[in-house]
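REVIEWER CHECKLIST
Item 1: Sequence provided? yes
Item 2: Single chain? yes
Item 3: Sequence as submitted:
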Amino acid sequence: MAILSLLELLGLSDSADNEIMQLDFAFLAQYADYVTDGRMAIFGAGIDGVESSVVPFQAHPMCLVAKFLIAEEDAARSHFYRIEVIGPNGSRKLMLEDQALNTAVEPRGRYPGGSNLIVNLNINFMNIGLYNLCLMLDGEDVKQLPINVSHIPSLETLAKQGEEATNGG
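Item 4: Structure as written out by the authors:
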């Protein structure tokens, strides 16, 4: 009879092929900040689209909010995250180069430790269409967050259309 390690019982192997660090969640929000105990305060969560009357344009600032779960055995290892943007045509553009992820283990909740991540974003969109923000950890995609960029008429266009409708064409 084989004796299983704690990692194997948890469904985690200590082999390099299985990841001990896991993404718990990731989403876009209007604003996020850290509070004193390491948790996050989040406002306007769930952004999945932006609108503009002109392109290219810079979207209003937003935040990528994520949490990684970290096993104690993995906390001593360095981990790096990066963000890439995948455009409507499938091209990838680096938005944020590799940054060190804070992996200090703070036991609380359902997993030995976690790393909260807030990244402030200022994104320039060059075209209308579906974009994906790609969160990567240690060179691997862990989450793609879709942002649909759509066109809306400008105020001038709406005013002109209203005037034409009032004047009968």
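Item 5: Key structural point noted by reviewer: Residues 1-18 have pLDDT under 50 and may be disordered.
Item 6: Recommendation: ____
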